[in-house]
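Next comes this protein:
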Amino acid sequence: MKKNINIALLKFVALAIVLPLALFSTSCSNDEENDSPRVSEVSMKTQPKVKYVLGEMLDLTGMVITLGKGENIKDVPYSSFGEEGITTDPENGKVLDFSDEAVIITIGDTGSGMIQAIDVTNDIVALIVKTEPKANYVSGETLDLSGLVVTTVQEDGTTADVAFDDFGKKFGTTPMDGDVLAVDNTNVVISYLESEAKVTQSIDVIAFEPVSATLVTGPTKNVYDIGERLSLEGTVINYVLPGGLEVELSFEDFAAFNITTTPANEDKLKSTDNEVQAMTASGNVVGIPITVNQLDVTGMTMEFAPDKTLYDVGELIDLNGLSVRLAVTGKDDVIVASEDFDIYGITTNPVEGTAYEEGTTEIVVSYPGIADTITISLGSEILYESNFTDGIDGWTNQGNDGGSSNVYAQDGVMISDNIVVGTNTYSLQLYKPSITLEKDAKYKITIELMAVPGEGGFDFSFSVGDGDGRDGYQNYYGNETLSLLGSESTIFTGEFTMSNNTTDAARILLNNGYQTNSVIVKYVKFEKL
């Protein structure tokens, strides 16, 4: 350990290793003394030994200083200090300790002198492994230095034993305790970080290439529903290596030993999953049984259509946005997004990622064992498709000039009843706002309306037109009239080309006019062709 040097002295010595003191002399009482030469300069010509080990004796024998007396300059070796009245503190031969930081050289009674810094240390210069740590490993195991004890050797020969737990920040190891080992790890280098002292401890790491394996404990959770994420926590496997060495590994150790599983931990489980396979890098496989409960699916309907339904030849089929609703016996409906179709055994034709071919008009979605399929028409981009399951789906009911009605969603349809007509035919309007139309693009609208049973038939008009007044609320398409008779639905399909400039504020308008009959809106779809 190095001594602590006085701060004031450090600042002083930092200016120069040898720093002359200010010289001065005093006047004598007689003329003879006043006329004698004075010391005008003191400097170090040859340094003495300045580096020591704790307990060594101060050696000033090699020191030579230079004195200036008037016009004369004289070199004074240490052996002549006595003749010149020069003293040192500490004296030559003193046994040194950490408090000895400098030698003060005084020139007689003149008050002149100088300071020479010295350095007293007792560093650790060597390490010896006294107690070896664990030395034999299998690749993938972590280094364990818990049993290590080293002996430190200091400059003065003093020794001390240091256990690994007491290493603190003064010792380091490469690799570090807890590091995952590989076969190319052949030794551990132990270093004392405040000096060059280090020692190497050999270790032996053999490859993890088991010849057999046995499942000791399966995962804590081994029964799942389709779509649940696999959890392998609790899994333990015993591996036997060549020569009979056995290694028991928990799931948390798998990554360190390059053990992979299929399906992987946290994967969503498929209806066909009944076993997890754990495989080592050398190909050894262990089966881990699991159970995935099957769903009793009684029906399938589309929840949301895919974002893209309009393709050029060669474009890849993209089902992003598509989801279906599965009706399951004894359970709530299950909504499945397209990215999870494979998990539930849902198939599509054509398959996502295949190139669109000319003449392909639809994508068919199927569930195993269910006769009914979902058909998604291609050749258009669906800009809006109604879904009145949870509300009126963004439609606006607007009454002016005394017109009013009650609009609500029920059983998957939108109903407008309790109608009070206004002054004008346009006083009561039901519309879907914020539709984007592009100039010269072609569009298709499909609408299905129905009269309320028992209220009789009537005519009802609709259109696609300006929704923000930019074009004077004119119709871009329509005014089409539907005749609603009895209790049967009426479906209308029409196409048009947008001749006006592009707008993002068009609307689909159901114009109530002067009729007072209730109307049921069952379905509305608006497509870009």
About this structure: Residues 167 and 192 are 9 Å apart (CA to CA). Residues 1-37 have pLDDT under 50 and may be disordered. The chain has five domains: 7-121, 124-206, 213-293, 297-379, 396-528. The two ends are 86 Å apart (CA to CA).
